[in-house]
Specification:
Blueprint: H1 7-24, H2 28-34, H3 39-47, H4 66-79, H5 81-101, H6 104-116, E1 121-124, E2 140-144, E3 147-158, E4 165-171, E5 181-187, E6 193-197, E7 209-220, E8 224-225, H7 231-267, E9 269-270, E10 273-274, H8 279-307, H9 313-342, H10 349-359, H11 366-379
Helix pairs in contact: 1-4, 4-5, 4-7, 5-6, 5-7, 7-8, 7-9, 7-10, 8-9, 9-10, 9-11
Coenzyme a persulfide binds next to helix 7 and helix 11.
């Protein structure tokens, strides 16, 4: 077992840290307050290789492992959970779905654009009435000659509006048939395909969220990803990997909140001394630091399994469940340690708390992670 980063991993983490300080931190509150998705910053991250992190160089990607991926996401999330979430969704979901399940033609056509940031990717599984119960989706595709006709809608889709291409999971068989769902690649501008931005979110407000609408959208047969009917299982595998990326974003939020709280506690004086000297505060910091260490180990353990091509259903769920709950706790404790100042937008704690909450919901709620974990425990 090796717990040290190699030189490349250290270099990537430093590069992302520098970029986040220069290009993201100065704008964080402006994007947050105005719900601005910074497309130009996404493009710059594409040029840096952060939008095709695990995509092989042959398809225009960086060809890095999940260790670099986790390091990059957590560095971004220390500064802005919203931007980090967008990078995670772009890499793990849309790009990942085409990389892991697409045909050679699809990989050659889409991955170079996605990996360099020329195109931004979206991924659609959830619908207004089907979140945790993803299999009960209502959006349908019916075969007509050499094309499929899509009807229905998808909800809570990251980059639904600004995305140039989306991979969407749509019913092609009977309701509740696990072999009755198919993945399709849908390009922006396809007639009948539109999107509406979802506004007024609590957190991750720099990450765009939208509803996708399909009104007799005709998709060519060559845009089916993998086999017809295999979409649900593909989606489950994509989420297994995606949950590691949400753990990585959560880790960054937890660290960012902890670092802000530690700094404040060392500077703020009450009763004639820094508040960090009081056990009430020191023990909070000790709990946060200990659990961050544990979360980091769980997240890199899941990343290591992924790098070795092993199944990550259980390890990804452990990492996502523990780390996402932890980042909410760290955001909350940071606000508490900062007291009245923590309750204002002048200090970073309130944004960490707001951004953290989505981590226990997106890509499978904490309750779904516990369901996945317990089912696996019972099955084995
Ligand atoms: N990898 C591969 N296949 C998987 C899988 C995985 N991780 N998880 C399930 N499957 C397969 C099962 O083996 C089963 O196959 P068969 O029907 O051939 O036996 C099929 O998929 C259906 O699985 P299951 O019966 O477990 O389906 P459920 O409807 O009970 O749903 C949960 C399982 C709840 C785990 C799933 O719906 C889920 O993850 N929901 C949350 C969705 C989510 O995270 N949404 C957020 C998206 S935000 S981007």
């Amino acid at each position: 077992m090796n717990f040290e980063f190699n030189e490349n991993q250290k270099m990537i983490a430093q590069m992302v840290r520098d970029f986040a300080e220069k290009e993201i931190r100065p704008n964080v509150m402006h994007w947050d307050e105005n719900e601005i998705f910074p497309v130009d910053v996404m493009k710059k991250m594409g040029e840096m290789g952060l939008l095709g992190i695990f995509v092989p160089e042959a398809y225009g990607g960086s060809g890095f492992s999940y260790h670099e991926y986790v390091a990059a996401l957590s560095e971004l999330a220390k500064v802005c959970g919203g931007v980090a979430l967008s990078v995670a969704a772009h890499n793990s979901l849309c790009t990942g779905h085409i990389y892991y399940h697409g045909s050679e033609e699809q990989k050659k056509k889409y991955l170079p654009k996605l990996a360099t940031g020329e195109w931004i990717g979206a991924w659609g599984l959830t619908e207004a009435n089907t979140g945790s119960d993803a299999m009960r989706m209502k959006c349908t595709a019916v075969k007509d000659g050499n094309e499929w006709v899509l009807n229905g809608s998808k909800n809570w889709i990251t980059h639904g509006l600004s995305g140039d291409v989306a991979v969407v999971l749509v019913r092609t068989g009977d309701l509740l048939d696990s072999n009755g769902i198919t993945a399709f690649i849908v390009e922006k501008g396809t007639p009948g395909f539109s999107a509406v931005k979802i506004k007024n979110k609590l957190g991750v407000r720099a990450s765009e969220t939208a509803e996708l609408i399909f009104d007799n959208v005709r998709i060519p047969e060559e845009n089916v990803v993998g086999q017809v009917g295999q979409g649900f299982k593909q989606a489950m595998q994509i989420l297994d990997g995606g949950r590691i990326s949400i753990a990585a974003v959560s880790l960054g939020i937890a660290k960012g909140a902890f670092e802000a709280a530690l700094k404040y506690a060392k500077e703020r004086e009450q009763f004639g001394q820094p508040i960090a000297n009081f056990q009430a505060i020191g023990f909070k910091l000790a709990d946060m630091a200990t659990e961050i260490e544990a979360a980091e180990l769980l997240t890199y353990r899941a990343a290591d399994l992924k790098n070795r091509g092993e199944k990550v259903t259980q390890a990804g769920a452990y990492a996502k469940y523990f780390t996402s709950e932890l980042c909410v706790k760290c955001g909350n404790e940071a606000v508490q340690i900062m007291g009245g100042y923590g309750f204002t937008k002048e200090y970073p704690a309130e944004k960490f708390l707001r951004d953290s909450k989505l981590m226990t919901i997106g890509e499978g709620t904490s309750e779904i992670q516990k369901l996945v974990i317990s089912r696996n425990l019972i099955k084995n």
